[in-house]
Write a structure and sequence with these properties.
single chain, about 250 residues, Immunoglobulin-like, 2 domains, six-stranded antiparallel sheet, four-stranded antiparallel sheet, 1 helix, 16 strands, about 0% helix, elongated
Length: about 250
């Protein structure tokens, strides 16, 4: 590994990388706009458990690491494209990057008991709709390792009615590749859990009141399954979650 990879400075996961690095030096009197490179390696240089299809290229120039646009990532080679002469050459490392998650949460009023769905207001008895977008502009996350936890805000209660559960799960474009499974509110083997003690335990079974909500739920937690893939080149793989809250 490059010394910066070993030290955690290159953005490459030292446990899921190619155990070598490359140095490119310009020849004399070269003039060009852009260049591409293909880094070849042998199987014994690849860490066990690494996924070459998920490899990125990291470049260190003038002491700064950057991440060129990826070309083909194959079993024994990884390509980078679109680099410029002005940007320089330098030292290169290849491997899986660390996940780089971003999360955006939006809220809107879905319905209220006075205006119904026509320009509804945030008044007692209303339903607020939350949308959470999660994207990954880094390396892939480990299998089954993604947990998304959300606290119930004051004066709101989670809506737990509906046969398909309180969460609507959707893939972004491109897809996160994660899967989401809901069986029942009281099923502790599916991909959503509930807490009534601020997240200390996750075994609470919600019960819908007349309005479809449960005031005892303090937190919900979603653990979709699989590997959340990533890509430093936009658009990043993503998923979205939608759920509703009753305004008290």
């Amino acid at each position: 590994n490059h010394a910066d990879t070993t030290a955690g400075l290159s953005g490459i996961n030292k446990l899921k990388s190619v155990n070598r690095f490359w140095t490119l030096t310009p020849g004399a009197a070269l003039t060009f706009a852009t260049y591409s490179t293909t880094f070849n390696f042998v199987a014994v240089d690849v860490d066990a458990g690494a996924t070459p299809a998920s490899f990125i290229v990291a470049r260190k120039n003038a002491g700064v690491w950057s991440y060129p646009t990826l070309g083909a990532a194959l079993a024994l080679s990884t390509a980078a494209t679109g680099m410029t002469q002005a940007g320089g050459f330098g030292e290169y490392a290849v491997g899986q990057g660390f996940p780089a998650f971003s999360l955006t949460k939006l809220v809107s009023v879905f319905w209220d008991p006075v205006n119904l769905s026509a320009n509804p207001k945030f008044i007692p008895g209303a339903l607020a709709q939350y949308s959470v977008l999660v994207s990954n502009a880094g390396g892939p996350a480990d299998n089954n390792s993604v947990f998304i936890t959300d606290a119930t805000p004051p004066n709101l209660a989670l809506n737990v009615s509906g046969a398909t559960g309180p969460i609507t799960f959707a893939q972004g474009t491109p897809s996160s590749t994660l899967t989401y499974n809901f069986i029942a509110l009281g099923d502790l083997t599916d991909d959503v859990d509930f807490s009534n003690d601020a997240g200390a335990t996750w075994t609470y079974v919600p019960t819908a009141a007349a309005d479809g909500c449960d005031t005892a739920v303090t937190h919900l937690r979603i653990n979709p399954k699989g590997i959340f893939i990533g890509n430093p080149t936009p658009p990043a793989p993503s998923l979205s979650l939608t759920f509703r809250m009753c305004v008290q």
